[in-house]
Amino acid sequence: MKLEATDDDRYDQSEFDRVIEQAYRELEYSRRIAQGIISNARDEASQLVAKAKTEAARLVAEARAQASTAQSAEVERQVEEAKHAYQQGFTSGLEKGADEGQRRFDAILTKVSGILEHLTVEREQMFDTYRQEMLDLVLKIAERVVRVEKETINNLLGENLVLLLEENPIRGEVALHLNPADVEEVSSYLVENGGPLPRHRLKSNPDVPAGECWVRGPELNLDLSFQRRFETIRDRLAERFGAGSSFSRRVDGRTDRHPGEERSAGMPGPKPESKGRSRRSPPSGPADRPDGQAS
């Protein structure tokens, strides 16, 4: 059976549709309102986030600036403390270092002083040792030179005899004792140079060493010899190297003089070689004459 819609039914349907449409409109409006609210909320949230970021950046910058300032102050404080500690340590270390340095310097100075003293003693000992050796060598050379001089310059003894007799005027006869090997040369020289006074006699005496002459008389008693010249050199060396040397003590204690020798203040020293003088053979005649020839 078919039912037909009545006017009331149609009215209800249209009212229902109107209500539904109104509900849709309200829903759409609400949706739009919600979207607007959401959009505004998003915008506000973005603004708030940006503002928060800006504020956070500002706060961070301020915090950093404050931290930097505080850090700088802390650094400066630490630097000042370090400087102060360094100065105190430097002063303390300087004092300790000075004390330690002085102690080490004193120790080194003591050691060096000991070494210098040892070297000084060693030097003196070496000098004394080699000085004696050098002096001995000089004496040997001097002795050899004088001996060679005596052997090559035979008229030197005659020259010294003339000087001796001229410097020591003596009254009375004086005997000039010569080694037989020297009589000829001395006689020749005395003849060439005028010779001594007639009262001075030459005597051949084998006891007289070659190159020497024993002068014997009432007022004069001395030896003119190679030994005398050598002792003169030795005395001068002793004076040169000091009276306290072992060489000087040995010279002062020498016992090599002739037993009958006496020294005279007027004894002439060595005379240099006469250049260019030729030797002559003694004139023939008696071996013992009062005019200066040998007896």
Descriptive keywords:
295 residues; alpha+beta; hypothetical protein PF0899 fold; 2 domains; four-stranded mixed β-sheet; 5 helices; rod-shaped; disordered C terminus
Care to describe what's here?
This protein has five helices and four strands. With 295 residues, it is α+β, with helices and mostly antiparallel strands. It has a four-stranded mixed sheet with strand order 2-1-3-4.
Short description:
Helix content is 66%, strand content 6%. The protein has helices at residues 7-152, 155-167, 180-192, 226-240, 246-252; strands spanning 174-178, 200-204, 213-216, 221-224.
Level-1 CATH class name of the largest domain: Alpha Beta
Write down how many β-strands occur, each being a DSSP E stretch of 2 or more residues: 4
Strand fraction equals 5-15%
CATH architecture of the largest domain: 2-Layer Sandwich
Looking at CATH, which topology of the largest domain would you report? Answer: hypothetical protein PF0899 fold
Mean pLDDT: 69
Q: Give the uncertain stretches in residue-range form.
A: 245-295
Helix content bin: 55-70%
Q: Report the major sheet.
A: 4 strands, mixed
Q: Cα-atom Rg, whole angstroms?
A: 69 Å
Helix tally equals: 5
Strand order of the largest sheet: 2-1-3-4
CATH superfamily of the largest domain: ATP synthase, E subunit, C-terminal
The coarse overall form would be rod-shaped
- Distance from N terminus to C terminus (CA atoms, Å) equals 220 Å
Secondary-structure element string: HHEHEEEHH
The number of domains is 2
Category from helices, strands and their pairing:
alpha+beta
